[in-house]
Amino acid sequence: MVQPINPNRRLIIPALGGLYASAYEGAETLLRVIAGGFLVIHGFPKIMNPFGAAGMVESIGFYPPTFWALMLALGEFGGGLLLMIGLLTRPAAAVTTFILLVTVYFHWILQAQGFSGAEKSILWAAITLFFVIRGGNRHSVDAKIGREF
């Protein structure tokens, strides 16, 4: 298990050390649940119309567009759901990170919006990349079943 708090670091207010140590896993879990939940919310319309984004994915260069529109819907909604509950956390986070990096390309390059257009996708990609590297913690289904990717 990764040691979340360095016991040798010197805090300006040492009394806060216990609070930081006790809140570490809860904050990490909250970030995972919120990120997954937001991806589920964002992916829900795509699941309801899984081929509706075919024109958009084709404009980015993904062929065949109906296949990739379906993958986008499953990746956002399903990947978000898996991330939220912490099941297959790393693969789910990897899929959603890929989707978010494509949206960075779409907004920054294809839509010529630059950083301001891609800013949210960059932030979300950084969050999901964290979970690719870290995986779920003890508050995940992966931990409950005793197996992780």
UniProtKB/TrEMBL annotation:
Keyword Transmembrane: yes
Keywords: Cell membrane, Membrane, Transmembrane, Transmembrane helix
Any GO CC annotation of this UniProt entry: plasma membrane
Matches recorded under Pfam families: DoxX
Matching InterPro entries: DoxX, DoxX-like_oxidoreductase
Protein's cellular compartments: Cell membrane
Domain of life: Bacteria
Topology term for the membrane: Multi-pass membrane protein
Transmembrane intervals: 29-47, 67-85, 92-109, 121-137
Family membership noted in the UniProt record: Belongs to the DoxX family.
Protein name: DoxX family protein
Organism encoding this protein: Tianweitania populi
Lineage of the organism: Bacteria, Pseudomonadati, Pseudomonadota, Alphaproteobacteria, Hyphomicrobiales
